[in-house]
Structure formats: structure tokens, C-alpha cells
Input
Amino acid sequence: MPMPQEYQLASQQYESFLLDALESMDLVTRNRTYTCVQATLLAFRKRLTAEQVLAFADTLPAVLRAIFTSGWSQEDYKPEFGTMEDWAADAMALRRLHNFSDEETPARVAEVLRRHVDLPRFEQVLRQIGADALRFWGFDSSVDAETKKALLADVPSQTGAL
Output
């Protein structure tokens, strides 16, 4: 069996992601970008059970999956998902003296990551984890998001009657 393309193209995919993240976060070095990405991934990881860590990791491109799982321990689990402020604080706490993360970093990393994953699969796994996971990665976490979309699609346009 040939090597899966996911592994053959891992470096190229990671470089593409890293450049996208660097530009989106207005950073000037790959090292700063890596730290912000790693900090965001670890801030999310600590809020997941072992089963959730594995399910989420499986949605990531190969190198990001390695970063996400590297050094992981079940003892890292934090049962409270917290708020956006908590997520940012956790991201900023990683290697504090060498970290350029700010309050916006998790949201910016989320925006970039969504462009580099199989989005329907990514969202499906996040839905299985729960509403907080959806919020962390920038999705509408309301239980009725699909219902709202369906209702809006069925509402006739008021401008069409004019």
C-alpha cells in the first residue's frame, strides 16, 4: 500500500497553514506563529476527555495533530470549559516570556484552522463534544442553529412583495 497522501503532503500542508496563520495574526516570525497555534490547541485540549482528545485530533492535518497530542496526559483534563477569557488566558500562559498570544489569539487561530480542515467532519466532531467546543472554534453553538437556518429559508422575503 502506498503511503497516504496525508503523510506525503504533511509538511506542505503545515507550511500553508502556518503562513496563513502568520498573515492572519499579523505576526512576523514562524516561531511566534507556532507558539500562538500551539497555545490555542493546548488551551482547547485541556478541556477534553481522553476520548474527545482522540476524536478531535483525528480531524486535524498530520502536523497539527502531532502538536495537539504531543505531551498530552489525562491529568491535564479540566472539567470546566470556561469562557473565552479563560481560553485566552490559558493560551497566553504557555511559555509566557516567548508567547505573543493575546485575547484574540484563540479566535484568530480558530478562523485559520477552519480553512485547513475538512469542515463538515470538524464541525460534526465538535458537535459531539458539545456547545462549548463549537464556541471555542467559532461555530454557532446554539442547539437550534440548524432549525434557525431552516426557518429563515422558509420565511418569504418582505422586499419581494414590494
User: Anything to note?
Assistant: Residues 157-162 have pLDDT under 50 and may be disordered. The two ends are 63 Å apart (CA to CA).
